Amino acid sequence: MPYDIKVNGAIRAVDVDGDTPLLWVLRDVLGMTGTKFGCGMALCGACTVHVDGVAVRSCITPIDSVGQSQITTIEAIGATAAGARIQKAWLDREVVQCGYCQSGQIMSASALLASNPRPTDSDIDDAMSGNICRCGTYVRIREAIKQASQLSGRGG
Ligand code: FES
Ligand code: FES
User: Fold this and answer.
1) 130 and 94 in contact (C-beta within 8 Å)?
2) Ligand closest in space to the Cα of 133
3) Residue 151: how many other CB atoms lie within 10 Å
4) Digits of tens for pLDDT over the chain (156 positions)?
5) Which of 53, 54, 101, 115 sits at a 20 to 30 Å CA gap from 35?
6) Atom of ligand 1 nearest to the CA of 38
7) C-alpha 48 to ligand 1 mean position (Å)
8) Which ligand is nearest to the CA of 138?
9) How distant, in Å, are the alpha carbons of 111, 115, 143, 145 from that of 92?
């Protein structure tokens, strides 16, 4: 079935079954492999993207539920103010280890910062608790979110 979906500011035409997960469409149909497959059951957060600015698990989001919502992926998150701050902080703090979970971590952190520029520790815990990191980068993730939040409201 044909769908026109909005991905990173562009309209993309895809032809898939309506119950196809958004993750499959991004990776296998559109070739956007920055969003990762981990568990396929909303348990790990590796597949996190934004739908109208909200962090969602694309592995359990059927394409026919997306409609005309704006989908943002890791490939374009750096073009948003919160995403740019998060990515800079990630580099400054050298957060990444193997990297597999990190696009999902960055997407969840960016959604948090965009909706809550000054998150408390418990806000960070709540927002990030669904993103698993086998390498245990949690301490640096928290530090990077705090660094990024300190830059919030300074023009970019
Ligand atoms: S792949 Fe979607 S939450 Fe794990
Ligand atoms: S950096 Fe390796 S799983 Fe998170």
Assistant:
1) no
2) 2
3) 18
4) 999 999 999 999 999 999 999 999 999 999 999 999 999 999 999 999 999 999 999 999 999 999 999 999 999 999 999 999 999 999 999 999 999 999 999 999 999 999 999 999 999 999 999 999 999 999 999 999 999 999 765 544
5) 115
6) 1
7) 7
8) 2
9) 20, 22, 10, 11
